[in-house]
UniProtKB/TrEMBL annotation:
It comes from Candidatus Allofournierella pullicola. InterPro entries: NusG_2_sf. This is NusG domain II-containing protein. It comes from the Bacteria.
Length: 117
């Protein structure tokens, strides 16, 4: 009798865990992704709007250096920086509204204007 009760309890527990896992999976898969970042660069402050919902690499000539930005999984980062100090790479991946990074030698900065999630 104890074995049947334990089995029933284990099956109910496993079912609840499976249901929770399915709900979490659905929430993570169906949430909006992306957002928008704005790159400002060069002597005259040109701007470029960058969507964060599509993985891509952007190579932008600022007139001083060609900077490299990578968009991946709803975030953006300076990568493979040609500037002498590489500090811009240290900002890491930006994904939240108002996150920002700058490459001062290249006269460039990027700001996340809106989040996707």
């Amino acid at each position: 009798m104890k074995d049947k009760k334990a089995l029933k309890t284990n099956l109910i527990f496993a079912g609840v865990l499976l249901a929770v896992a399915l709900v979490l999976f659905a929430v993570l898969q169906l949430r909006p992704t992306g957002g928008t970042a704005v790159l400002t660069y060069g002597e005259d402050g040109q701007t470029m709007e960058i969507p964060l919902n599509k993985n891509a690499r952007y190579d932008v000539d600022t007139g001083i250096y060609t900077i490299h930005l990578e968009v991946k999984d709803g975030a953006i980062a300076f990568v493979d920086s040609p500037c002498p100090d590489h500090l811009c790479e240290g900002y890491g991946w930006l994904s939240r509204q108002d996150d920002w990074a700058a490459c001062l030698p290249a006269k460039a900065n990027v700001v996340v204007m809106s989040e996707g999630g």
